[in-house]
Recover the amino acids of this structure.
């Protein structure tokens, strides 16, 4: 959280294109610390579980090709977390889009789509 509060908001373009201060522990760190500190696994495991659960729902019930866009939006955070764990540098804009915008837009679209279906099938 301190990484986000320390961002320079007076120069938004420079801040968004600079290397992201957000980081996740590396794979090696997780392997050694998972037994003593399982909270390190919360974000990576949650990202994978959400992506897989949405994949199963869309695979089972999705009838249009556009429903796969929800799965794509849910997979973006997995890719961001994986890249961070591998040490791949990313601009802050990529992290904000991948960890905030894509999941919110994807989940919102999914809820609206399911709501429309349920409303129409009443």
């Amino acid at each position: 959280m301190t990484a986000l509060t320390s961002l320079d908001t007076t120069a938004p373009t420079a801040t968004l294109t600079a290397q992201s201060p957000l980081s996740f522990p590396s794979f090696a760190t997780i392997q050694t610390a998972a037994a003593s500190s399982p909270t390190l696994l919360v974000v990576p495991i949650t990202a994978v579980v959400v992506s897989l659960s949405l994949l199963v729902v869309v695979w089972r019930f999705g009838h249009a090709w556009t429903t796969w866009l929800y799965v794509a939006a849910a997979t973006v955070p997995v890719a961001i977390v994986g890249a961070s764990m591998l040490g791949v540098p990313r601009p802050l804009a990529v992290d904000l889009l991948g960890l905030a915008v894509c999941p919110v837009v994807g989940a919102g679209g999914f809820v609206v789509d399911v709501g429309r279906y349920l409303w129409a099938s009443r």
